[in-house]
C-alpha cells in the first residue's frame, strides 16, 4: 500500500482501517498496489466526510470498467452497510457513513 505524494491520511478515523485492509487485499488480488490518493487533504464539497477523516479516495486508473465494478462489489460485501463505495472517473471514493 502506498500513499500518493501530497495525500494526507494523518488523522483519519480508525473506522477507515477496515477499508484500507480490505482494499489492499482486493487490489493485490487484481495484481495492483493500492494507492491512497486522498484522505484529509484536498478540496471537497461542503460537509464531505473527508474533512472528518471518514473518507478516502483510491487510485483506479489501471483497472478497466468491468474490473472496477467487480472490485466495488467485493468491497461493498466486505465492508457492510456502514460504508459507501462510489466509483468516480478517476478514483474510488469510500466513506464510513452509517445509516
Keywords:
99 residues, alpha+beta, Muramoyl-pentapeptide Carboxypeptidase, domain 2, five-stranded mixed beta sheet, 2 helices, 28% helix
Describe the structure in your own words.
- There is one protein chain.
- The chain is α+β, with helices and mostly antiparallel strands and about 100 residues long.
- The protein has a single domain (about 1-95), classed as Muramoyl-pentapeptide Carboxypeptidase, domain 2, CATH 3.30.1380.10.
- Helices cover about 30% and strands about 20% of the residues.
- It has two helices and five strands, in the order βαββαββ.
- It has helices at about 15-30, 65-80, and strands spanning about 1-5, 35-40, 55-60, 85, 90-95.
- A five-stranded mixed beta sheet has the order 1-2-3-5-4, covered by helices on one side.
- Strand 4 (about 85) and strand 5 (about 90-95) form a beta hairpin.
- The protein is globular.
- It starts with a strand and ends with a strand.
- The mean pLDDT is about 95.
Helix-strand layout with pairing:
Layout: E1 2-3, H1 17-29, E2 35-38, E3 55-59, H2 65-79, E4 83-87, E5 91-96
Parallel strand pairs: 1-2
Antiparallel strand pairs: 2-3, 3-5, 4-5
